[in-house]
Structures are given as structure tokens and as C-alpha cells.
Design a protein that fits this description.
This protein has 442 residues and is mostly helical. The chain is 81% helix and 0% strand. The chain contains 19 helices and no strands. Helix 3 crosses helix 11, helix 11 packs across helix 14 and helix 13 runs antiparallel to helix 14. The longest helix is centred in the middle third of the chain and has 37 residues. It is globular. The N and C termini lie far apart (56 Å).
Length: 442
């Protein structure tokens, strides 16, 4: 093997590991642990659903951007309409950026890595101080986006994987007890429930953003040919998704077997914290704190960088540095609202954005099949949008029993959160029919 070939493979692994670290943040730790506890004996089927949206969709999102040849998510979404491209991209960047995902990286780091040592009494002041330090470091790392591969792919990620392996590997080899009975919806529909739980990671949304960072990193390796760019981007995505899937499975199993020793906990952060203490005592809390800090810091850097670059392109009159400052300050302010409020506020937005994201990814792969017709994009997305708005309203305010029953009768799978599937398919078929009709007239 030539040295140049070896260097390129090493660089490709570094890019793939960087992508994994960018994806692997707050939700990736707490959601599979909590899912494992709730799913119990059905954890494997629930985890399969979780992997579809938590690892499979992010992989498809990364490949979709490379396959489509779009310069960013706005260009891809603009295939529906130019106004939709701006609206969707801005909403997506704000959701995974300063409004939800970025503040959550600090609050989860604090809840899991700091609170066990300072106690609940000093929580408010502790969070304020921690958020300043956390986002100060994130700001410094975000000021040189070109160094992301070296700083994250070659430094933070190996440290992150080693610390995760130490905890979940030991827990997998020494389970606390037998698998418990499933709870709630995991009893009757573990697969569908697992799919919806994967939404919480926000990784499918982030994939359309992080794909640009990967493509830029691959281009920096000297790859310009479109086919080769797609191949190397896909390989990087597979590396990241494989690491995500492996870690999810171990954390999910750890959560499922922890019920015997810990009982059912209120959230995934408590599952992780108490599991670490169960196996390693106070040293376990230190280890977990390192894992969470590394995971959340690397994700925060990727989100701040991506959001700043996008809004700088959208509003070139405002510098990249200024957008980094704005994103950092807004994220720091919202982080002090606390984890529970951030998660509660984000759920309606996720229920709206996730179906739209899944559909735009699938349309990118089907683009050549229907000749890239705008009317197909428009009909499919608008049908999905209507149900997405219903889902968002339901998550925010709820429906009366009569209204919920009526909607469930009209929309198959709506009761399990997948009511958008049939309308999206119908919109796609309608768009194809209209496209064929217009071509005949022409």
C-alpha cells in the first residue's frame, strides 16, 4: 500500500469519526438509556426502530446531500420552491442550533456530569457558571471551522469512544439483572415507539447540515470528482452511523438490564448517572462526566459552526464571527432554562420538522425517477406539511377525544405518530400524475 493511499484512508477515518462526534451529543446518550428501561424485554425491537431514525436516517441524510449535488440544505429544499428552501433551512438550523439542540448540549452535560457533585441546592448558580465556561470553550473551537477534523476527528472522538467503551462495555459484560417487563407503548408497539424516540436525537435534521462539513473536509483531501466525492462521503457516513448504532445498542441494553438494580428512573440522565455510580462508585460519575462533556462539546461546536456559516451565507452583511457570537450567547441564555423546559418546547417542532426531513431525503434519492419535477416535490411536501402541522399542534396542545378519534379514523398510523406516511405517498403519486399530464399538454 502506498503512503498516499494510507494517508487518505486515515483521513477518511478521521472524517468519519469527526462526523460521529458531531452527531453524538446529549440526546444520543439519554434517549437510548431511557428507551432500554421502558422497553425492557422488548428492547431489541424498540431499539431497531430507534436505529432506523437515530442512525439510518442520518446516514441517508448525509448521502442525500452528496447524491443530490446540492451545495446545502437550502438548495435541496428549494426544489420544492425558493421560499420553502429558505423557510425550511432556517427552521432546521434554528432547531438544531440556538433554540433547542445547542442549549441542550450544555444542560445535559451539567445535569449528568456536574449536579452529582454539587447537589440540587446549588443547581441554578452552578448551571449559570457552567454554561459560561462550556460555551466559552465551544466559541473558541468554533472560530476556526477548518480545524474541525483535527480538533474533533483526531482528538475528541477517540477519547469519547474510549470512555464510552469503558462504561457500557463493563455494564454489558456484567448486567445488573434480567430484562424487566415493557412499559407503556413499548408493550404493544415497541418498533413504532422506538422510531418516534429516535426523533429526539435530532440527528436526521443535523445530517443535512453536517453533510456539508463532511463534503468540505473530503474536498480538502483533494477529492473533486463528483462520483468520488459521493463515494468518500458515503464511506464517512457509514463509519459514523456504524459507531452510532453500536453505541446505541450497548446503551439500550445497559438501560434495559439496569432496572433490576436501579428500578425505573424518570429520565435517561438519571439512568446513566446511577448506572455509572452502581458500577464504579464516585469514580463512575467522573467517567460519565467526561463522556458527556466530550460528546456534548463536540456536538455544540459542530452546531454553532454550521449555523453561523449558513446565516452568514444568508445574510453576508453580518460576519461569520458575529453569528458565532450570537449563536453562542442565545444558546447560553436558553441553556439556563433547564433541560426539562428545552425538551418540552422542542417536541412540537420536531414532530413538524422530522416528517418533512424524511420526505425531502427520500425525494432526493427519487429525483431522477420523476425527472426532478418541481410539482412532484411540491405536492409531496405540502401533503406532509399538513399532517406535520397537526402533529405539532397535538404535541403542543393536544386534541379532544372526539377530535383525536376522528383524525385517527381518517389517517392510518396517526395514533402512533406516523400519520404522514399515507398523505406523503398520495402527494407523491398526485405529483407524478400531474407532471405526466403537463408533459402531454406540452
Amino acid at each position: 500500500m502506498s503512503s498516499s493511499s494510507g494517508n487518505q484512508k486515515a483521513s477518511l477515518w478521521a472524517v468519519g469519526l469527526m462526523l460521529f462526534a458531531l452527531f453524538f451529543g446529549a440526546g444520543n446518550l439519554i434517549f437510548p438509556a431511557y428507551l432500554g428501561q421502558q422497553a425492557g424485554e422488548n428492547w431489541l425491537s424498540a431499539m431497531f426502530g430507534f436505529l432506523l431514525t437515530g442512525a439510518g436516517l442520518p446516514l441517508l441524510g448525509v448521502i442525500a446531500i452528496g447524491y443530490s449535488g446540492s451545495r446545502d440544505v437550502q438548495a435541496l429544499a428549494s426544489r420544492v420552491s425558493p421560499w420553502y428552501g429558505v423557510a425550511f433551512a432556517a427552521a432546521l438550523y434554528l432547531a438544531i442550533g440556538p433554540l433547542f439542540a445547542t442549549p441542550r448540549t450544555a444542560t445535559v452535560s451539567f445535569e449528568v456530569g456536574v449536579v452529582p457533585f454539587i447537589g440540587e441546592a446549588n443547581k441554578s448558580v452552578g448551571l449559570a457558571v457552567f454554561s459560561v465556561v462550556f460555551f466559552g470553550v465551544a466559541y473558541w473551537l468554533s472560530m476556526s471551522p477548518g480545524k474541525l477534523v483535527d480538533r474533533i476527528g483526531k482528538i475528541l472522538t477517540p477519547a469519547l469512544l474510549l470512555t464510552i467503551a469503558a462504561l457500557v462495555g463493563y455494564a454489558a459484560l456484567n448486567p445488573m439483572g434480567a430484562l424487566p417487563e415493557a412499559q407503556g407503548d413499548f408493550v404493544t408497539q415497541p418498533l413504532a415507539k422506538g422510531i418516534l424516540e429516535g426523533y429526539g436525537t435530532m440527528d436526521a435534521l443535523a445530517s443535512l447540515v453536517f453533510a456539508i462539513i463532511v463534503i468540505d473536509a473530503v474536498r480538502a483531501m483533494g477529492v473533486d470528482n463528483r462520483a468520488e466525492l459521493l463515494r468518500t462521503t458515503t464511506i464517512s457516513g457509514v463509519i459514523a452511523a456504524s459507531c452510532l448504532a453500536a453505541v446505541y445498542l450497548f446503551i439500550g441494553y445497559m438501560g434495559a438490564t439496569s432496572v433490576a438494580g436501579l428500578g425505573v428512573q424518570e429520565n435517561g440522565a438519571l439512568v446513566l448517572s446511577k448506572t455509572a455510580q452502581y458500577y464504579f462508585g464516585m469514580g463512575g460519575n467522573v467517567l460519565l462526566g467526561v463522556i458527556v462533556l466530550l460528546a456534548c462539546l463536540s456536538t455544540a461546536v459542530g452546531l454553532i459552526t454550521s449555523c453561523a456559516e449558513y446565516f452568514n451565507r444568508l445574510c453576508p452583511g453580518i460576519s461569520y464571527k458575529m453569528f458565532v457570537i450570537i449563536n453562542t450567547l442565545v444558546s447560553m441564555g436558553l441553556a439556563n432554562k433547564g433541560l426539562a423546559d428545552i425538551i418540552s418546547f422542542s417536541v412540537p417542532v420536531l414532530m413538524l420538522l422530522y416528517p418533512l426531513t424524511v420526505v425531502i431525503i427520500l425525494l432526493a434519492f427519487l429525483h431522477n425517477f420523476f425527472g426532478g419535477s418541481r410539482i412532484v416535490y411540491f405536492c409531496t411536501i405540502m401533503a406532509t406539511l399538513i399532517v406535520g402541522l397537526l402533529d405539532a399542534y397535538k404535541a403542543a396542545f393536544g386534541f379532544s377525544e372526539e377530535a383525536a378519534s376522528a383524525i385517527n379514523n381518517v389517517l392510518p398510523l396517526y395514533h402512533i405518530g406516523l400519520g404522514w406516511l399515507l398523505p406523503a405517498t398520495a402527494g407523491f403519486v398526485l405529483g407524478c400524475i400531474l407532471n405526466a399530464a403537463l408533459k402531454k399538454k406540452a
